[in-house]
Amino acid sequence: MVEKKPFITQAEAQKIISDVPTPFHLYDEKGIRANARRVNAAFGWNTGYKEYFAVKATPNPYLLKILKEEGCGVDCSSYTELMLAEACGFTGEEIMFSSNDTPVEDMQKAFALGAYINLDDLTHVDFLERVAGIPAVVCCRYNPGGTFDLGNGIMDNPGDSKYGMTEDQMAEAYTRLMAKGTKEFGIHAFLASNTVTDAYYPVLSGILFELAVRLHQRTGAKIKFINLSGGVGVAYKPGQRANDIAVIGAGVRKKFEEILVPAGMGDVEIFTEMGRFMLAPYGCLVTTALHEKHIYKEYIGVDACAANLMRPAMYGSYHHITVLGKENAPCDHIYDVTGGLCENNDKFAIDRPLPKIDKGDVLVIHDTGAHGFSMGYNYNGKLRSAEVLLCEDGEHQLIRRAETPADYFATFDFSPYYKKLGL
Length: 423
What we know:
alpha/beta, TIM Barrel, Lyase, Ornithine Decarboxylase, Chain A, domain 1, 2 domains, eight-stranded parallel β-barrel, 22% strand
């Protein structure tokens, strides 16, 4: 099996740990910037191209600023994500707002910022007008229904998804919006998650490009941009083939030139919203082995838990684990690697071949740069960990401190119990 190599050495980890105790999420600035440049190069053939990083994946202002410097925008789905984008200097068309079941204040904030607003439902046309107003550019989210496959198996089931509109609803939305003053339109769709195939974006783009032509011919609407959303995944497992973003970009270009250019729509801008692909491989969870247990199985207990990374517990997801300093040791022990929650699914690995782990060993849990820290929670009173940036020059920077009990109890500050906590 091909080994996944961490972007940090044992010596580098110990240097950080002397300053920031484990557990913490660590991000690789050099890797993030290099990947953003590869993405921009892959789609640079489209003069209006922009990657709108999905803030939900990793909502940290220090990381958002790095991506902004690399030419990325942001995709927001809530009021607080819009606040974060604004604080980082994103304005107007640098922001996509894609939400569902949208509260009034969220829609009003997106409108006030001049963001591209992506409507999830036909009824949101009147809702948008009533609570905010009608922008000159509006995007609508498409749901084709049925199942989505790439010819070699079903990838996902859009027909079971709560998101988006039918084609007829989109045509009606465009017609009604034009009557209210909208001049240009966007199309958005998300049909599959974490795909590890170069075919996903090209196939999706073909579907959306053909939809764009039909909607333009049917309604006369001017299509300004097509947003391919996310869904481009990463290789979580050793030896798994990774997506080639250059090949993906070339595949989208081929569909663009086959479908949109002959229809006289060669000026359409292409957007993406790749949270996972942009950051997941460039983050890891660093944790220390606390205990070992020998009963019917062999267990290693670490100081991180599912509250720091819930994907393995929630989805059964694989995240590779490296024991720093033992990268070349034989993986001749079979462990469950667990956290300390009062839940039996609080496991980062089950029956995983690893080197012999001793108390105090530092473990790197790979590919947590997206949907890692952001999905954290406080069950059992567990506190969210710190986030640290490994800078390009090899130094490290604290980019979010760890929570304290004072943070955990802060929402009781109105009550008489707060004083008794002695905080």
